[in-house]
Amino acid sequence: MENIVIIGNGIAGISAARHIRKLSDKRIIVISGETDYFFSRTALMYVYMGHMKFEHIQPYEDWFWEKNRIELVRGYVTKVNPEIKQLLIDGSRALHYDKLIIATGSKPNKFGWPGQDLHGVQGLYSKQDLDLLEVNAPNKEVCKRAVIVGGGLIGIELAEMLRSRDIPVTFLVREDSFWNGVLPQGESQMINEHIKEHHIDLRLSSNLKEIVSDGSGKVKSVIVAETGEEILCDIVGLTAGVTPNVDFLKNSGIELGRGVKVNRHLETNIKDIYAIGDCAEQHEPIGNRRPIEAVWYTGRMMGETVAQTICGNKIEYKPGHWFNSAKFLDIEYQTYGWVFSEKIKKEHEEHFHWRHPKEKICITVAFNKENNQFLGINTFGIRMRHQVFDRWLTQEKSIDYVIQHLADANFDPEFYKKYEKQIIDGYNMDFGKSIKPKKKSLKRIFQIA
Amino acid sequence: MSTHDRSMALTGQPPKILSRNQKVATLLGMFGLAVILLAAFNVSFPNKGLWLTISLSAIFTGTLWFSWEAYSQKLPGIKNDGVWFKSISSKGFWGWIAGIALTGFYIVLYFFPEYLGLVKGGENKGIIALFDPLSKLLSGNPASQWFVYGTLYTVAILAFGIKFLWKYRHNSYERIRTISVMFFQTAFAFIIPELMARLNGDKILNGGSLPYYDLKNVWPLNYYNFEGYRIKGFLSSGDIGFALLIFGILSVFVITPILTYKYGKRWYCSWVCGCGGLAETAGDAFRQLSDKSVSAWRVERWVVHSVVVFVTLMTTAVIYSYLGTDTSKYWLTKSTFLIGVAVLLTLVFAWVMIFKRAQLQKDAQYGAIGYFVIIMALIGIHFFSGDGNVFLFKSETLRKSYSFLIGSIFSGVIGTGFYPIFGNRVWCRFGCPMAAMMGFQQRLFSRFRITTNGGQCISCGNCSTYCEMGIDVRAYAQKGENIVRSSCVGCGICSAVCPRGVLKLENGPLEGRIDSNQVLLGNDVDLMNLVNQK
């Protein structure tokens, strides 16, 4: 019987394991040094905030793995030897594989800042990071101030976590507005305001110069590059992005770039070795996507794809239309298709932006100004229906059509205030049009004749 | 290994810390309760009306003040910080204390009302006497233990309802739903029946007496609605009484099925019902304690459906016992009634087995067949044996055991007393026959579903954790499936706590409602076709 070994029990590795089991009777072994069981990484924050216990963020009950004959091994893989198809766990235990799937995820970036390895300096990625945070910042007496470096999704999550325990937070963001490498200006500006509303000391255009030690190997303060200001703190959160976690593969003969290099079939340069999830790096980016996609959903899709390939049905990784979501403190964010920030958007991309005069609600719709084709939407504080936008993107609808039928795409809970009218008025005003809204139609939404 | 503070202190670090004002508010509420407790030990209050007002106001104000302190300084949004750190909401020390106190209260209420001051054939004493002024104001009669309970119940739903309204002030669905349960409790369960009691003996009722009737309390939750003494009461009370009886029957066979078809059972369970009302307001702090395991689900299915069978048998037996045999006196006789029950059950059973069998899991099919055979056999035995009892038992024995086991122990002592241990919907999930019957329809024949938003789920588990009915919502959402579960009461909290906007309660077409195929959008279409090849 074929021996499938998967390194990493995150969403990519576990999706692969589950789907291989659905399709075959192969022996499946999943190795993880992090935890015994699969958990939802994106939910770690809720454990620190007391919304859930760690057991709640494990999507399957413990009996699930044995019942589905997925063998779990605890340990770190230290070496892979493709020549004899063998790997070493914790430097000692050897394990043979017939097919190997690398799904080792990421690790927090460290850019060589002075003091980045002091006690009290940490990232937020793994279960170990969460446990460490409980040591470094259990409460506001032990941790009198926290400094977070890096204004992305993990940074704002960490800020929210620490604020839930009333710990004062200073948030150093390199850009002149929060996440504006990704978000268009109007949205980024609204999030800036919301961060401040939550009593987080947001410092824009601020880089970290160095982390200062208290003399005993523990962090004492950070120094801001632009102003030279010293900020006293007990913890420094490094949240300036992540890098593939592939150091253990150096010298294994597996081709590495920043991550494990793979082709569209998620195969590495060595036969029978595959890489999926955050740690995989496409030779050629797919469409507008980045070669490395450290996103929950893509990890899951790659896992499903590689399972097909391994079970004899070789197929390409073909992600459909881009989508993503996040939550910035109290504001939910969803995106469908592509909306680029002013910094990186192409010549033909134009935006329609609408923001509620009082509430923290806004949307940005991107379209091609040459042919009016709808390209994508960012939405803050309004939930939208994935299925509907996926269909509109496939059908290459025009922006006028999308604006006109926005009610079909609304996914807010019942009785919520609707904003389609104001949005259409704004659109008509901005672009000199006179579009009338179409009523929500269950027939169109659910595609019934 | 985590080394953070795990002390048992009442008020520790944020987010579980209580502010000074919250401590004072707690004291105020406790003072209100203490007045009632003192009354239990026969401390005689000089002016009962005044002291009752002081006591209830203190409880009410204490709760509101506490909640205001908790939410007013925060921005609108999900307020679950520290839920699993606080001992009251995580089965800690205070959780157990609250559970034991509540359970004790229910045991006294149901089985030892004399400790509350009930005196058979005499003047009330103790707590019940304290409530006499309010009762006399409403119905003109002295209070009973049930009036005391009803008053405290209503105060709890109103005070904690307002707390809930603040907590979810960003969510219109939760707000409107909560205003609805607060209204139905106050008007339908509390005030209207008391005022109706004033009509008793009046000529508008032809001098008859209506039974105490909470109009929104539908059989089989209201398992005694068709008992002999109540039917007599309805029939003796002129057109109004007759209309109420007809309403009681229509609400079972017409109103409930239509509303459940259109909106799911939530129209009742989380919008109207009193049990649901208490669970959603006072019980809200305990919703995360429900058991989400597959084994708990298995137990739930067997227990709750057994209660349905039990209540059906019991009610049939009770109605049978007071019907006559002579067709010339009244068209409905013992035999026609039993045959009618058998025909109705056969029709429902046949409809399910012919049209909806594919939607039931194997064990549900076996269960349905098993129960059907048992009921039919019992009816058959009755016809062929011809002794005085129906179903081999005395109807009175059946009624008494149901009332004791289900009506008192299950719905009261366990259902509410164990809120802080098993969560706030133990009764609704494991015991309520009304919920089970509507759930059966909801699963098979209703427009209601919780739609999963394509591929947006990140498996975080907030939905499952905060589902009071113990549904593992995430198990469906992460596969892109809609959630169509008979137990779902439609409280909407899964949708509220979802950080990624994945869940939406909605009424839509029946077609494609239960889509057990995996629809993970974002993935290449061909791949998903492959995944779904079984």
From TrEMBL, chain A:
Protein name: NAD(P)/FAD-dependent oxidoreductase
InterPro entries, per database record: FAD-bd_OxRdtase (IPR050260), FAD/NAD-bd_sf (IPR036188), FAD/NAD-binding_dom (IPR023753)
SUPFAM superfamilies: FAD/NAD(P)-binding domain
Family recorded in the similarity comment: Belongs to the FAD-dependent oxidoreductase family.
Keywords, comma-separated and alphabetical: FAD, Flavoprotein
Listed cofactors: FAD
Xref: Gene3D superfamilies: FAD/NAD(P)-binding domain
GO function terms (MF aspect): oxidoreductase activity
Ranges of residues in domain FAD/NAD(P)-binding: 3-285
Record flagged with keyword Flavoprotein: yes
TrEMBL record, chain B:
Transmembrane segments: 24-43, 49-71, 92-112, 146-166, 178-196, 240-261, 302-323, 335-354, 366-384, 404-422
GO molecular function, one term: 4 iron, 4 sulfur cluster binding
Gene3D superfamilies in alphabetical order: 3.30.70.20
Keyword set, alphabetical order: 4Fe-4S, Electron transport, Iron, Iron-sulfur, Membrane, Metal-binding, Transmembrane, Transmembrane helix, Transport
4Fe-4S ferredoxin-type domain span: 448-476, 479-508
Keyword Plastid: no
Xref: InterPro entries: 4Fe4S_Fe-S-bd, 4Fe4S_Fe_S_CS, Electron_Trans/Redox
GO cellular component: plasma membrane
Protein's name in the database: 4Fe-4S binding protein
Organism in which the protein naturally occurs: Flagellimonas nanhaiensis
